[in-house]
Amino acid sequence: MEGTWGGRAPQTTLHRLTRPVLTVAASETCGRVDELFRADDTLRCVVVDDGQRRGLVMRESFGTMMAGPFGFGRALRSRQLIGELTDWSPLRLSADTPVEAAALLARGRPANQTYDDVLVEEDGAVAGRISAAEIFDGLARLYAHRATHDELTGLANRSFLLDRLAAACADAGRGGDRVLLAYVDLDGLKRINDTHGHQLGDAVLVVAGQRMARAALSGELVARLGGDEFAVLARLPQSESAEAAARALGERYVLAVTAHDGHLAAGATVTASVGVAVSGRVADPQSVLSEADMAMYQAKQSGGGRTAVVTGVGAELSHRLGASDLSMRDAIRDGQLRLFYQPIVDVRDGAIVGIEALVRWLHPRLGLLAPERFLPEANRAGHVPDLDRWVLNQACADMAAIVRDHDGQAPPRMNVNVSAATLALSIDDHVAAALAASGLPGNRLALEISEDADLETLSKAMPRLEKLRQAGVGLVLDDMGSGSTSLRYLSRLPLQGLKIDRTFVGGVVHNTGDYTVVKLLADLAHGLGIGVTAEGVETPDQLAALLDLGIHSAQGFHLGRPQPLEAFAAKLASAGEAAR
Q1: Residue 437: CB atoms within 10 Å
Q2: How is 359-380 classified by DSSP, letter by letter?
Q3: 517: part of which helix (H) or strand (E)?
Q4: Helix-strand-coil split of the chain, %, nearest 5
Q5: Cα–Cα dist 398/463, whole Å
Q6: What's the pLDDT at 263?
Q7: Residue 118 to residue 134: CA distance in whole angstroms
Q8: CA 41 to CA 542: how far, in whole Å?
Q9: Complete DSSP assignment for 387-409
């Protein structure tokens, strides 16, 4: 396991990369300079000063000249003045020149000077020298640091954390230790941003990151995931109590973030909601991450400034769920299902153009469960159509209430996921019944069909889907790029839009292959005359890349987390009051 990361970024200017120089007068003889080079094998060059200007003599070219034809160079040139052989126009750069700019200027030099040193100046005087190789090495270190670190806080970034989480889960499966992941969300940062501006908000993030880095024990990796979210990755020996260790770690970081150390104004204090997940005997990175996220949300819903813990995450917990006496039908009957709503945003102006209904199971023993924890078992038991019907009915009722209570601020449309199993049934009748019962107009509803639906199911469902489109219901192909839908069916389906799978959106900035796939899918949607939405947007850089590709609709944690109806309605009410 890596140690804590909260470190200083590699030097981004030439200041600390500069090496000392040896300066000689232009009136010195070549013989004297030759002696200097012979006495010090590490001396790459000398600076020559004639009182008015400064130049360079490089060791390699000088040595070749002094050897001369047939070895007589020293005899011929020893008395010659070094000023006559000096390059009086070397590249001169200020000590505060960024490494990126220095590398660009070094590459632009003539071929015969490509590997010559650069003079570094400070306050008009020569401060030292640096070789082109050292400049490019500094640039490589800087880019490597940026690829794995958060630029604002200096902590590890989300990409690096996910890599280390996957490695830790694989290693834990062999060694018997368990993986512990804490999801840390700052309470109150939005208030600071809205009241005092994002500059102070960024300062709060930096201080919070520093406090967490100081609170970390050896072997704990602290990372910033994005926005106001951080994470801590650790290993837990089998001999320790998972519950006690997880709670102790969570409380340690709650206290670290909450502590006041005088670096910030009194109005810029925040607390932290922490969710801690501990893996079972078999560690699965996605399950650990998802459960830590859900636990954090439970801590926040309980008032914030506290810790929620879930243990045994992974294959062991899935087994406990599958072996329990509760089925999806039991959950529906006993009112244990909950809908969360995630905004779909127009990235050009931040307007909410839709919401997606996402189901959760508030299990009486295991707490709030994400879909990946219960859908496989529900699918095996044949309960998914019952689940889809419940989600459809509840989502339509909720959307009707949103439209009724917040008409001016209500999003134009709500998306509901429909499984392949439900597509094979009378989907048009189910939708018509849900719309009639809720009073929701058809044009306020869109169905998301997963791309992994088989072609036979899509073919048979075509007439029913067409009937829904005629009733104003939108149809969206979900997770585009993750399945194998035939382009022939894609062109025949009565689609209103498609959603690009988060796998490709996650790599759109750094992976040329993912960028190409996203561009192809966006061009395909535009060519078909349908909308395109990017899923899983988690960073500003991803958002900027999507805008460049002409993708104007997106959803993801960077734009808005899934939240219960009450929280979403409160946000709409607040927006309505602000508009008035």
Answers
A1: 12
A2: EEEEETTTEEE-HHHHHHHHHH
A3: helix 512-528
A4: 45, 20, 30
A5: 28
A6: 66
A7: 10
A8: 49
A9: HHHHHHHHHHHHHHHHHHH-TTT
Q: How far apart are CA 45 and CA 105, in angstroms?
A: 20
* Residue 27 tokens, joined: 């009136």
Alpha carbons 432 and 418: distance in angstroms, whole number? 14
Secondary structure element (H or E) that encloses residue 469, with its range: helix 455-470
- pLDDT of res. 239: 78
Counting every residue written for the chain, the total comes to 580
pLDDT value for 5: 47
Strand order in the sheet with 125-130: 92-94, 118-122, 125-130
Residue 556 to residues 15, 207, 356, Cα–Cα distance (Å): 40, 26, 11
Ramachandran quadrant class, 560 (left: phi over 0; alpha: psi -120 to 50; beta: rest): left
Strands 367-369 and 414-418 turn out to be: unpaired
- The closest alpha carbon to 525, from 546, 541, 511, belongs to 546
Extract the tokens encoding 570. Answer: 């409160």
Provide the greatest CA pair distance for the chain: 105
C-alpha to C-alpha distance for 156 and 151, rounded to whole angstroms:
9
Q: Which residues of 337-356 are buried (b: 16+ CB within 10 A; e: fewer)?
A: bebbbbbbbebeeeebbbbb
Along the chain (580 residues), what's the average pLDDT of each consecutive run of 10 residues? 48 81 93 93 92 90 82 82 92 88 85 80 83 86 82 89 89 77 90 80 90 93 92 88 90 89 70 90 80 83 82 57 64 92 92 94 82 78 90 96 87 92 87 95 93 71 90 90 59 86 85 87 90 91 92 92 88 67
Dist CA 523 CA 166 (whole Å):
33
Please, which residues have CB within 8 angstroms of residue 396's CB and are 6 or more apart in sequence?
Answer: 414, 416, 434, 435, 437, 438, 440, 445
Sheet bearing 271-279, strands edge to edge: 221-226, 229-236, 178-187, 271-279, 307-313
What single letter denotes the amino acid at residue 209? G
The span from the first CA to the last CA of the chain, in angstroms, equals 53
Q: Extract the tokens encoding 572.
A: 């709409």
Are 164 and 148 in contact by the 8 Å Cβ rule? The answer is no
- Helix or strand or coil: residue 413? coil
Comparing CA positions, the residue from 230, 247, 228 lying closest to residue 187 is 228
What pLDDT score was predicted for residue 2? Answer: 44
From residue 18, how far is each of 11, 116, 430 by CA, in Å? Answer: 11, 14, 72
Extended strands (E) in 484-548: 497-500, 531-534
Q: What is the DSSP letter of 171?
A: H
Q: Is 147 exposed, middle or buried (0-12, 13-18, 19+ CB in 10 A)?
A: exposed
* Separation of alpha carbons 479 and 19, rounded Å: 53
Contacts of 525 (CB under 8 A, 6+ apart): 497, 498, 531, 532
- Give the span between the Cα atoms of 331 and 365, in whole angstroms: 12
